[in-house]
Amino acid sequence: MPIVQGWVYNDPMELRLLLGAVLSCWLAGCLVSFDEGLLVDTMSTVDVGPDVVQADLDASPDTRPRDLYVGEGKAPLGVFCTDPAQCESNFCQDEVCCESECQEVCYHCNPEGLCGPTPAGKDYHGDCAKQDPSDCQQDGQCDGAGGCRLYVSGTICHKGCISDSESGVRKCDGKGVCLAPTTTTDCAPFKCNFASGTCYTSCTTSSQCLSPATCKGKTCK
User: Fold this and answer.
1) Letter string b/e over residues 38-54, b meaning 16 or more CB atoms within 10 A of that residue's CB
2) Is the dihedral of CA 87, 88, 90, 92 positive or negative?
3) Distance in angstroms between the alpha carbons of the first and the last residue of the chain
4) 49: pLDDT strictly greater than 50
5) Where do the domains of the chain lie?
6) What does the pLDDT read at residue 211?
7) What is the pTM of this model?
8) What phi, psi does 55 have (nearest 5°)?
9) Which SS3 state, helix, strand or coil, does residue 61 take?
10) How far is 66 from 60, CA to CA, in rounded Å?
C-alpha cells in the first residue's frame, strides 16, 4: 500500500499543492502520513508490503505513527483510528483498527492490529497497581503473559529486626512470597532496634537489653 509524505505548506501555493496531493492519494486509495505540517511528494510514493516493512509489534501506543486512512470504505487492521466506526473490524483499540475489543488485563493491540499480551515490564493501560515490595506482589508492570508481574526473585521485602533478638534481610521468591532470611545477626545481649532495623550497640535503659541482662554503664550485662 502506498504511503504519501511531503511538502511544508506555509503559503497558499503550497496549500494548493497539498490539497492536490491528498486528492491524488484519495483517488489511488492510499495512506497519508502527517507530521507537524509535512506531507511528502506523491512522486515519491512507494509500495510496501509485509516482506518489506518490519513493524515493531511491541511499540508503545504513544510512539506509533498516526496514518490517516483515505482509501475506499473502512480502514483495515493496523491503521490509525479514533473511532470503531472507522474500522472494518469495528474495533479501535490503542489508536489502531484492531481484530477485537482487546480490553483484557495486560493486553494491547499491536501495530498490525492484532491483540496480544503486553510485553513484560510495560503497562500501557495502567492495569497493574504497584504494591509495596514487602508483600512481594504486583510491581506495577505486566508479566508478558497477560497478567500483572510479581516482584522478581531477590527483591528485598524486609530489612531489619526479625525479632527482639535478631536482625536480617528477607527477599521475595518471585512467586509472591517473602522468604525467611538465610542469615541473621544475633543482637544478644542487646535487643534489636525496630526503629532502625539494627541491633542496639549501647543502652540507656534496660528495655534495650534482652532479659535477664540489664543496662549498666551503657552496656547490657
Assistant:
1) ebbebeebeeeeeeeee
2) negative
3) 85
4) no
5) 2-117, 156-220
6) 93
7) 0.57
8) -75, 145
9) helix
10) 13
